[in-house]
Amino acid sequence: MGKIIAIANQKGGVGKTTTAINLAASLAALEYKTLIVDADPQANSTSGVGLNPKDVEAGIYECMVDGVKSSDAILTTDINYLDILPSHIDLVGAEVEMVSIEQRELKMREALKEVKDQYDFIIIDCSPSLGLITINSLVAADSVVIPVQCEYFALEGLGKLLNTIKIIQSRLNPELQIEGILLTMYDARLRLSNQVVDEVNTHFKQMVFETLIPRNIKLSESPSFGMPAIAHDGESKGALSYLSLAKEILEKNGLAHK
Ligand code: ADP
Ligand code: MG
Fold first, then answer.
1. Name one Pfam family in it (predicted).
2. Does residue 53 surpass a pLDDT of 80?
3. How far is the centre of ligand 2, averaged over its atoms, from the C-alpha of 7 (Å)?
């Protein structure tokens, strides 16, 4: 039975896509069959695993709106154990088109039901909004990882996100759990980075992952090679930090790893 984890934060540039790609690739490296769902019209995780969004014929949009089977839209990647349900720019239109559909919050859950059992993990890369596609992602998910960038205004918007999660838990998805808050782009040399770590730990102690994701050049340049950092430079600090996050999540869920 696959566990569906949404990577969500309505702020842009906090490391959602980097986390989705590298967490998924790390779980795959640990031989857990993993699917990335690219739920952002910018399609960064689609290109980040080496696919051209322009070549995508059917993605999550068609699965939610046009009734395309997700098994027909899923593509394999060059990485063992890692598949992707891609995105392309039409996903922008989905928000508008779905407004008039019945049970519009449930479309992604319905779309993923068919393939859920074929994967150990399904990682959803959410878009930087709390719009209908993100609501769909949170309704489909079993848990959510919230990346928080170690920068100014790190906690901005976090209250609103946690509140949205609460509303979804009470109305649409009572099973939704918070897998954890993930501190990203940490730079040990910067006082600001350390202040953010302290502040987040003070406010949200129980929720914060032990793993800190450092600011690392391999993480920012690997998408331009169309591959996760673990495939680009598996010994880099960035790749190793996401491997550590994957192990932390496996342990939290009572699953073994090498
Ligand atoms: P989001 O999906 O939340 O908008 P991204 O994952 O695309 O955020 O990250 C925003 C930018 O920061 C990208 O250019 C990405 O390559 C870079 N980035 C993300 N995480 C790191 C990191 N740990 N170290 C260095 N650069 C990073
Ligand atoms: Mg993104």
1. AAA_31
2. yes
3. 9
Ligand 1 centre and the CA of 15: distance in Å?
A: 4
Q: Give the model confidence (pLDDT) of 135-178 as tens digits.
A: 999 999 999 999 999 998 888 889 999 999 999 999 999 999 99
Within a domain: 52: yes
| Per-residue CA distances from 66 to 63, 91, 141 (Å) | 6, 12, 21
Question: Is residue 41 within 8 Å of 89, Cβ to Cβ?
Answer: yes
Domain containing 246 — which CATH number? Answer: 3.40.50.300
Number of residues that this document lists for the chain: 258
Q: How far apart are CA 26 and CA 43, in angstroms?
A: 20
Q: How far apart are CA 216 and CA 239, in angstroms?
A: 9
The CA-atom distances, in angstroms, between 127 and each of 10, 49, 172, 197, 228 are: 7, 17, 20, 24, 19
Instruction: Spell out the residues 6+ positions from residue 91 whose beta carbon is closer than 8 angstroms to its own.
Output: 39, 40, 41, 43, 59, 60, 61, 127, 133
Q: Is residue 95 part of a domain?
A: yes
Q: Which residues line ligand 1 (CB under 6 A)?
A: 12-18, 44, 128, 184-185, 213, 215-216, 219-220, 238
Q: Enter the tokens of residue 61.
A: 């949009």
Asked whether residue 63 is assigned to any structural domain, the reply reads yes
Q: How many domains does the chain have?
A: 1
Q: Which residues of 184-198 are buried (b: 16+ CB within 10 A; e: fewer)?
A: bbbeeeeeebeebbe
ipTM of the complex: 0.99
Within-domain flag for 126: yes
- Distance in angstroms (rounded) separating the CA atoms of residues 100 and 226: 36
Q: Which residue has the higher pLDDT, 41 or 181?
A: 181
